[in-house]
Design goal:
Largest sheet: 5 strands, parallel
Radius of gyration: 21 Å
Low-confidence stretches: 1-8
Strand content: 15-25%
Structural class: alpha/beta
Mean pLDDT: 89
Shape: elongated
Bound molecules: S-adenosyl-L-homocysteine
Number of domains: 2
CATH topology of the largest domain: Methyltransferase, Cobalt-precorrin-4 Transmethylase, Domain 2
Number of strands: 10
Number of helices: 10
Distance between the termini: 78 Å
Length: about 270
Amino acid sequence: MDSGNHLKKNSLGSCTLVGAGPGDPELLTLKALKAIQAASVLLVDDLVSDEIVACAAPGARIVHVGKRGGCRSTPQAFIEKLMLAAVRAGETVVRLKGGDPLVFGRAGEELEHLQAAGIDVTVVNGITSGLAAVTALGVPLTHREHAHGVIFITGHAQGGASDIDWKALAAAAHNAKLTLVIYMGVSSARRIQDQLLSGLPGDTPVAVVQNASLAQQRHAVCTLAQLQRTIEQEQLGSPSVIVVGNVLRGLAAAQLSATSVQRRAQLG
Ligand code: SAH
């Protein structure tokens, strides 16, 4: 037993980038679950739920590299160093990320770093939170009449929301009938709203979905012109996805009629 272990420690381990999905453990892929169970070291991001981390083997070393416990998140370069050192020490390393590891997960940087060191990395996809958010609303992402495609976009580019050409996006979304799915957009919602209004009508339906797929999931539906106000009123915060587009028309109309029924009941 000992000599086997010793041998293993002297040879190169492995590294798998695993998508943990939006939070609900039942949305893990079988491949993701198997990789988590087989890992000897797991480097875990903040948005990965505790229930998923609990799937790891009892003896596995779990390293939280997010902002948990009030710490600032671990610098990217340090995470990459940790991954490399663990692989070189013969560990079966799983880098566990929320949603899909290749969507706004800085996976590109981690892949490049390990590949440059001659280490093969396997990637296991996860359900990205943008998809889970739209599913939570019970609407489609595309629609033969209303949406011919989708744009997944961050509201928080390296230089802030101002790095993104929201006006061009609004025009494209309007002209080509595209659904916008905005990650990390809640804190820049005012700017996003103002700039999108340059190319999209004020009554374009919008939804904000917080904690999609989790027990504490919440959402609000409003118009583009009401986005910031709704976020404040409903006290929606991170992690949330903002969905913009006419795929939400039916939902917005249903909400409007529910509100007017409520008002009538109150008046009556
Ligand atoms: N790789 C992840 C995205 C990482 S960026 C993915 O594919 O989902 C982090 C952002 O993802 C958050 O700021 C938020 O916009 C979104 N997010 C992650 N989990 C979420 C959830 N359960 N509900 C809503 N948004 C979520």
